[in-house]
Give the backbone structure.
Amino acid sequence: MEPHFDKTDGLIPAIVQDAETKDVLMLAYMNKESWDATVLTGKATFWSRSRQKLWVKGESSGHVQIVKKIFMDCDNDTVLMQVEQIGGAACHTGHRSCFYRRLEGGQWVEAGEMIFDPKDVYK
């Protein structure tokens, strides 16, 4: 069984979760090619909508995601991947999780852990 890429114009959401802590790290999109690459290599691979190309998570930063388990929803059009996050940071901003902002009293505040300075990593 594979995800139904045809139901969603070729892209499905992929929720990425830390396999140990169960923290939600990020959400990205996969097409059939990135799905196949992920299953084959065990490294989280996505489709970059902005760059219109395959994107192996961590190919620039070294903060790769090693896939431990993959779950699929009941409609076969969304996956949840539990990963080992190498290097501690999933977000290109340097935060552990892409969900590092929290709404408090009508204001957005940074609540997530900063792991690295992006200026030092992306040159």
Notes: Helices lie at 32-41, 118-121.
